[in-house]
What we know:
Elements: H1 2-55, H2 59-93, H3 99-112, H4 119-140, H5 144-175, H6 181-210, H7 216-227, H8 235-252, H9 259-279, H10 283-304, H11 314-329, H12 335-353, H13 360-372, E1 377-382, E2 388-393
Antiparallel strand pairs: 1-2
Helix pairs in contact: 1-2, 2-3, 3-4, 4-5, 5-6, 6-8, 7-8, 8-9, 8-10, 9-10, 12-13
Amino acid sequence: MEERGLRVARTDGAFFSKISTTISKLLIPTKIGINGMLITIKRNNVLKNYETCKKNEEKEKEEVLQKKYEDAFILYLESIDKYVMDSIYKKVKARTATQFEEDALSKYYTVIHLKDTQYLEYKYRKQKYLLDLDYISLKNDNKNKIITRYDPFYVSKMEGIYKGILKNYSIQLADRISADLIEKDTVYESIFDTLEDYVGNILPIKMKIDGKENYKDILTEFEKFDDFQVGKLDVRDKIEKRMYLLAISRKLFTHSLPLTVAEQCYDKLIKEARHLIISSKNDKKKEKAYETLINLIEDYNVRLLSTKIYWEVPQDKDNYKKFWDEYTKIDKDTEEGKVQKEILFIKDELRKIQNNIQNKHIIRFYKDKLTEYGAIRKVKNTYSKGKNYTKRKVRV
């Protein structure tokens, strides 16, 4: 009997463990319900305060109302955070979570991981994550009436969050001037990913609220970017898409992504386009890559350098002024004008890269292009052994 009793006692542990797990599974929906109600209350409160701030026209009330709105926003985020830890975490642990919930928890830990190394980015990313989580939940539940009211608040907050993230990356890039190239490349990738996330997900909502007519200055670039959202992209497509993102950023993120940082981003894309020309296996792909490079160079010079006021090197300013004077004289609508434009771009490229031996392959390609257009002449050199070589000279 004692032995039997001990065996029962040992199995009781497993029994109570199973009971405990079962009860946990039964209680999880209750937790979700309570947290869901709390989120709804806090969401309604923050929306009410946001709308009050927007309608307010009395200067003396502005500070008080803004403080009340920010406090409501903090409580709202805390309620979503509590939902993640009390409900989603326990559902994943109990293996009753949906794929969406599993992905949400995974993303949550990715954000939390930033806390020790990049606190400022962590602060913005966590706010973004929590807002996105609630917004996606509303969309999945088809709560269109709430979404219509939620959208202006959501866009307003996301605008500030994305600007904060991009500004933080700009500071990181400035701090990494002499840092490892891989680290800088990581920051560049983060900038492009953040821009793509904003233009792909937030800007369309903003356009719907404000009306597309208020975005005429970026509508063409936005539509071209949107064309790249469908289908598999090759390297050239990726470069072009990022070119349109930078063009849009010059209008929407002028202060968060300063000209010096945008200049470095353009420079990175131009280098990638040069490499793509050299690495392309056939003439058709090479010409497509070259076409992308020409578009990039024009975009870089017209959208960015033409607006540049402060130049660290006076000679660079003088060179650009000469370039710009020539560019503005070209009739770009004619076939002859297009050729003249290409010649101008290639000569300017050669001037910038001709002293770097690493660029010898792209320099050869550029000189082939100039020879094709009749912009440079061949000069024969005869060496002592009697062998003739062709030497090409170009004034840049």
